[in-house]
């Protein structure tokens, strides 16, 4: 009998696109995926169980082995630094990480402050740039910080650029492009290598077709 494969899916923005990709790859996902508050969805026809987690938590479930595979944004992978394999760029939910601030911003030497939902990523970036900054961790509405004087700059995701524009902020530096990735627990990869390789192959084919 084929073993069950547990997949950690990020709720929110990425979910719909990830479900669409899996369906195109031939996985028969029931209508519960389109309209449900369930956090665990079993698909016995595929011998698969899906768990629906907060995007930032997906690598944690995969690292601990309670999910064999998962879908996570590159932003989350950089921020969380979990011990998991990143096996495929799914090329969905594309956006990028940037530094932004008020127009005309000039670097301050004394006590520069940067607000972000991604303190590790931001710390890593400014270290690479050789700039010492104080990182202030926020959980959302990051664009508010420079407007209200909490920080001079922010490190945040930009997609359409609308949030920056509507709040009178400008992009100062681009840090890294972001897409969602398929990630795998190292032990699961040893135990279910054929199954996971097949999943990667099926998804790769759909991604290639989409970029042709
Ligand atoms: N404009 C965007 N803003 C934020 N994340 C985006 C955007 N576009 C794509 N993404 C991707 O979606 C993921 C975040 O999804 P979502 O916004 O649903 O979750 P979240 O912000 O972590 O959740 P919550 O707002 O409930 O805390 C990111 O990790 C990133 O990879
Ligand atoms: O370039 P845009 O298309 O405007 O998208 C970028 C915005 O979207 C995200 O915020 P989200 O909507 O997740 O709200 P949050 O501030 O509560 O995280 C992100 O943090 C930016 O604020």
UniProtKB/TrEMBL annotation:
Originating organism: Halalkalibacter suaedae
Major enzyme class: transferase
EC numbers: 2.4.2.17
Any one of the GO CC terms: cytoplasm
Domain of life assignment: Bacteria
Database matches in PANTHER family: ATP PHOSPHORIBOSYLTRANSFERASE, ATP PHOSPHORIBOSYLTRANSFERASE ATP-PRTASE
Predominant place of localization: cytoplasm
HAMAP family tied to this protein: HisG_Short (MF_01018)
Pathway where it operates: Amino-acid biosynthesis; L-histidine biosynthesis; L-histidine from 5-phospho-alpha-D-ribose 1-diphosphate: step 1/9
Domain ATP phosphoribosyltransferase catalytic: 54-204
Substrates-to-products reaction catalysed: 1-(5-phospho-beta-D-ribosyl)-ATP + diphosphate = 5-phospho-alpha-D-ribose 1-diphosphate + ATP
Any GO MF annotation of the entry: ATP phosphoribosyltransferase activity
UniProt keyword terms in alphabetical order: Amino-acid biosynthesis, ATP-binding, Cytoplasm, Glycosyltransferase, Histidine biosynthesis, Nucleotide-binding, Transferase
Family designation: Belongs to the ATP phosphoribosyltransferase family. Short subfamily.
Reported function: Catalyzes the condensation of ATP and 5-phosphoribose 1-diphosphate to form N'-(5'-phosphoribosyl)-ATP (PR-ATP). Has a crucial role in the pathway because the rate of histidine biosynthesis seems to be controlled primarily by regulation of HisG enzymatic activity.
Classification via InterPro entries: ATP_PRibTrfase_cat (IPR013820), ATP_PRibTrfase_CS (IPR018198), ATP_PRibTrfase_HisG (IPR001348), ATP_PRibTrfase_HisG_short (IPR024893)
Subcellular location as annotated: Cytoplasm
Protein name: ATP phosphoribosyltransferase
Subunit structure comment from the entry: Heteromultimer composed of HisG and HisZ subunits.
Annotated domain remarks: Lacks the C-terminal regulatory region which is replaced by HisZ.
